[in-house]
């Protein structure tokens, strides 16, 4: 049995309309368990508690689009990265025009920007958009509805979510260029003492990367907006 912690972070971990867990990281750990003939249990957690929950043995692996940072490496062990992702900012067309990034950075428009609480993206938002009204969210699906309805002015998240939203709802939403805000690498994480488990995960990632299976799943979750309809 392998217990896997999952926290909302589309498209790496999300719940569909039937409340089932889906996403790139969910695909990864489910295939890992199948290949290793392990039973798997998905354990819901939150970004505020995910690393503490892993360290407290509430699950064995954290798989939720986790960004690698040196500070987190003091607390957990990361697998080899499986992808690198830039930030994107999707905004409500009626609230903001294409050239209004400066308005958000200076806070002159008193706009509200949603960001997933407890993430590296939230820290980046505070650095670059801290003069605007930053709304810490835990439910991306509700934030997307609020953004489309104009209750939120923008949503800062890792790609491909912002681009997928702008592509799916072009009459309501558009992208602003925040490419200068940086990129992060994603990996799975285990407790610092679980080197044997980490060795298996890393070998599996190498094996499935060479086989092309990871790229196949990325084609759907990262390079296509089709998964937006599942939320």
Give a description of the structure.
- It is a single chain.
- The protein has 231 residues and is of the alpha/beta class.
- The chain folds into two domains: 2-83 and 185-230, Periplasmic binding protein-like II (D-Maltodextrin-Binding Protein, domain 2), CATH 3.40.190.10; 86-181, D-Maltodextrin-Binding Protein, domain 2.
- The protein is built from nine helices and twelve strands.
- The strands form two sheets. Strands 1, 4, 5, 6, 7, 8, 9, 10, 11 and 12 form a ten-stranded mixed β-sheet that branches.
- β8, α5 (120-129) and β9 (133-137) form a beta-alpha-beta unit.
- The two termini are 28 Å apart.
- The relative contact order is 0.20.
Throw out a few tags for this protein:
231 residues, ten-stranded mixed sheet, two-stranded antiparallel ribbon, single chain, alpha/beta, D-Maltodextrin-Binding Protein, domain 2
């Amino acid at each position: 049995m392998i217990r896997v912690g999952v926290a909302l972070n589309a498209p790496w971990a999300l719940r569909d309309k039937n409340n089932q867990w889906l996403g790139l990281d969910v695909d990864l750990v489910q295939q890992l368990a199948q290949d290793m003939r392990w039973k798997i249990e998905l354990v819901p957690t939150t970004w505020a508690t995910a690393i503490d929950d892993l360290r407290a043995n509430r699950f064995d692996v954290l798989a939720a689009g986790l960004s690698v940072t040196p500070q987190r490496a003091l607390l957990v062990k990361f697998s080899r990265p499986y992808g690198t992702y830039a930030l994107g900012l999707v905004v409500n067309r009626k609230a903001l025009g294409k050239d209004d990034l400066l308005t958000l950075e200076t806070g002159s428009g008193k706009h509200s920007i949603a960001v997933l609480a407890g993430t590296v993206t939230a820290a980046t938002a505070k650095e670059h958009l801290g003069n605007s009204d930053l709304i810490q969210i835990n439910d991306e699906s509700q934030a997307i509805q609020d953004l489309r309805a104009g209750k939120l002015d923008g949503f800062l998240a890792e790609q491909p979510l912002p681009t997928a939203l702008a592509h799916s709802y072009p009459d309501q939403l558009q992208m602003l260029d925040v490419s200068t805000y940086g990129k992060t690498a994603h990996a799975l994480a285990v407790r610092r003492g679980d080197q044997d488990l980490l060795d298996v995960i890393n070998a599996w990632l190498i094996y499935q990367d060479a086989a092309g299976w990871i790229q196949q799943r990325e084609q759907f979750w990262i390079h296509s907006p089709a998964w937006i309809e599942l939320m």
